[in-house]
Structure formats: C-alpha cells, structure tokens
Amino acid sequence: MYGGVEMLHVPSDHIWRPDIVLYNNADGNFEVTLATKATLHYNGLVEWEPPAIYKSSCEIDVEYFPFDEQTCVMKFGSWTYDGFQVDLRHFDEVEDSDLVPQGVDLSEFYMSVEWDILDVPAVRHEKFYTCCDEPYLDITFNITIRRKTLFYTVNLIIPCMGISFLTVLTFYLPSDSGEKVTLSISILISLHVFFLLVVEIIPPTSLVVPLLGKYLIFAMILVSISIMVTVMVLNVHWRSPQTHRMAPWARRIFIQVLPRLLVMRRPLQPRRRSDKCGAGVWPSLSAPGVGCTVLSARLRPVGLCAGGALLPPVGARLSGATCTPDVHRVREDWKYMAMVLDRLFLWVFLLAVVLGTATIILQAPSLYDDRTALDQRYSELRRHRR
Predict the structure, then answer these.
(1) What is the pTM of this model?
(2) How far apart are alpha carbons 52 and 33 in whole angstroms?
(3) Mean pLDDT along residues 241-254
(4) Structural domains of the chain, with CATH
(5) What is residue 173's DSSP assignment?
(6) Distance, CA of 135 to CA of 84 (rounded, Å)
(7) How many other C-beta atoms can be found within 10 angstroms of the C-beta atom of residue 231?
(8) 235 vs 206, residue with greater confidence
(9) Is the bond into 121 cis (omega within 30 degrees of 0)?
(10) Model confidence over 5-27: pLDDT tens digits?
(11) Quick one: pLDDT band at residue 341, thresholds 50, 70, 90?
(12) Which residues contact 313 (CB under 8 A, 6 or more apart)?
C-alpha cells in the first residue's frame, strides 16, 4: 500500500484482460460492449465486472409441451489462451471439486412469468484436443428451467378436455336424432381450431409431436370414429323388414344379452286392439311404422267394429290390405337395437376418453417433479415485493 491508497479505479483498456467468450453465442457479439473501469487492489488483486447481456442458443424439446422442462447450456472459456496460461475457475469453487451446485447468483433475478429456474450448476471442464498437448479450460453453466403451465392449462388443456368429453354426449341423444352427426362435426371443427392455436404457440419442429398435439390428434380420431358410428346407428334405426333381416345371433346379442349387461329396459309399446276387430281399423298410409301390407287400394265405405258390433260405414276402406303385426314388431326390434348400440358406444367412448386423457397427459415427467424453483427461493426482489 502506497500513501494509504488501498485501491485504484483504472480504465479497463490499460490492463490485460483475458478473452473470455461465450462459445455457444447466438447473436455474434463476443465482446463486452460496455468497458467499465477495473479495480486495482494494493495486494495485486484486479477486479473487473462489466455488465453484459449474453444470448445463447438452446435446443428446445417440445415433446411434453406444455409440461416441459428445458436444459440450456452456457459455455464460457478463453478463445486463445490454454489452461497453462489462464487457469479459469468459478468464484465459489471449493478445493478438489469442479462442480458448483449453484453457479448463478439469483438475488437480483427478476422472476419470469413463463419459466421457473430449477437448477443452475456450474462445472469446470479441462479438455484436450488432438491438435495440442495443452489443456483448454471452460466453465459450463447448465440451466434447467420448467415451464409454468397455468396459462396453458386454463386456455388450452381444460377446453380441449371439455370438448373431447362432449363426444360422449353424442350417444346420449335419441337414436333417430339427425343432430347427432351435426354435434360430432361441430366438435371436430372445434378441435381443429385448437390444433391451429397449438401450432402457432410451439416452436416449429419435425422431430417430435408435442404432448398437447398428441392429445388433440387422439381427440380428433375419436370424434371421427364417433361420426362413423353415429351414421351406422342411424342406419340401424331406420331399417325395415322389407330391406333387412335381423340375424339370429344379432337378435340374441343386441336384444337379449347386451340390454341386461347395460341395465336397459325395452320401451313399453302402446296396447294394440284385438286382431279380431283389427281388420276394419287402418292407420294413415303416410305414417311411419305402418303395420300393414297394402296389396291394392280403392275407396269404399268402411265398417268399424266396437265390442263386436258392426257399425255403419263412416270412411274409406283399403280392400285387399292384410294386417301384419310382425312387421311392426321387427321395426321396433331394429329401433331397440339402435338404442342398445347407442348405450354401448356411450360407455365405450367414455372409457376411451378417460383412459386416453389420463395416458397422454399423465406421461409428462414434470407433473411428478415437486422441486421448488430456485428463483422463488433466492430472489430478494421477490421477497421485497411481498
């Protein structure tokens, strides 16, 4: 110490500075832009702490988006000096150890609204190249960050899951309802819109399909299958004995066995009049489900019977028409079979949606990572805001 002076502040251009650079630099600016002064101590210690903003490249893995964790590497080292000329070490490094568990000071860190910092170790590497006999040193910071999922859960995942579960309601509508197909197509269009939103959010990559993308593809496939099943159920509902004949095995499975397993009751049919008097009572020809086969028709007075007594003619009679109660019964069997199919696929699709959602969403490793974020633990700025 000379004249009581313990330190001096000198321009950094007046002293020797090691050419420490960020190897995986992303913007091409390897030099410190603001040349602040260095501090010279009387014992020979020289401190130079220039402020700088470094931009590095980081490979993003979107396989589990939005429940993803990323590990970014920042490698610092001398560009020209070898390990014999510049011994590069971390300030907090302990003896006989090249690992610093927390290599970054987070006391002045402003917390991110999108990422949590989980781990920031620093490792000193001593590497030999084939060209040279001298070692080259570097300090590598491995920064592990975890995405905050609240925004994506509220705005993407929950709506997608809700729309997917609407697929089950398609089979809760009546079997003869044409709106079943309309509902399924509307759900498919909604899922496609959400898929376009996901494409806009995630980084473009062809390496993997993100987790949310897998779920949307699964939901769209499920809805597409539900549309095909709905068309099949509508076809079964409107079948008649003139066009289709129900096989014995189909009658046994869908009329006798499955209703008991699905806890279903056949709808009660209105009591029909006795066939003894039914020859004179005819429903409208335009009504569906007519239980008669018309051979020829001409207008003539009709006699209605009530309690076995013949009444005076009051209307028109269809001559040559034969009443076939079996036709009506077969048509009701087809309608009941459509109801059974609807109930069966309701449970099948409900099980598929629940299992598919759980299988896809719960495979993200970050859901089981209960580590507390380091920025929440060490950030003094966060504690001051409280």
Answers:
(1) 0.73
(2) 7
(3) 86
(4) 7-148 (2.70.170.10), 151-263+333-368 (1.20.58.390)
(5) S
(6) 7
(7) 13
(8) 235
(9) no
(10) 888 999 988 888 888 899 988 88
(11) very high
(12) 301, 302, 303
